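Progress narrative, Year 2. Work on L-ascorbate peroxidase from Pycnococcus provasolii advanced from sequence curation to structure prediction during this period.
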Amino acid sequence: INHSSMSAPPPLQPSPSLRARILDILKNPEARPSAVRFGYHVSGTYNVNDPESGGGSNGAAIYLHEQRDDPANKGLADDMISRVDQLRLTEPDVSRADVCALFGALAVKDMGGPEIPVRMGRQDYWVEGTAHAKFKGIEVEGPPTASAHLPAASGDAAHLRDVFNRQGFGDRDIVVLSGGHSVGRCHIERSGYDGAWTENPTEFDNSYFTNLVNLTWKPREWDGPLQYTDEETGTLLMLPTDMALLTDPEFRKHVDRYAKDCDGFFADFADAYARVLELGCPWSSQ
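Result:
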């Protein structure tokens, strides 16, 4: 699917009424962290080496059963799609794909994080609910699955680079986007993992990085998959992919910097997450 001929629309923040409506739909304390994660899951199927594959935030592919029911999206997709549909009852002119992006961007800001610039103009050509859809009258194959393109929590540094490089991101981006773990938590019924990364999982700050650096982490003794807990309180979580940021020397440089510099983290996160939300968009150069 070639979108390269379309010029980039200007960054557009939603009107005050649309912003208020979105935040009201996301008013549940756990909904806003989920919206941030959802924004990445919707977009992260993009492959910079195969831009015609149909991945990315354009098209609302998350509505397809192939993505909606993917184990990587278990629980998350159904919850957030119901909220997207709720918003569009009163805002039918805003595409589902744009709403998904707006949910993530506004949730970051509302939890105390940086402003994320958002461009509008995504289309909903995957919403037919089958493995095929028509784009500009041309039959195209369904998009790639989420499990094959999103990072696995059990992965190491090489796995993270493989996944994020395919999306067009480098080491700094990998680390700063991992900082989204400052909000939210893992749910056993969804991922098999359990717990939150920070003490205040609805407050967007750099505590994920300060916890990584300043706390002592050990494997949790339990019947579930390998995850880590802090020796100091025994209540917090780190996944193998989180620990890879500590043990890889190139990743560690960025971890240490963000643990000391919250403003720098915010600036770099705003830049990287805005690019996440534009993966596969008509105007994107990635």
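Residues 1-5, 129-140 have pLDDT under 50 and may be disordered. The longest strand covers residues 132-135.
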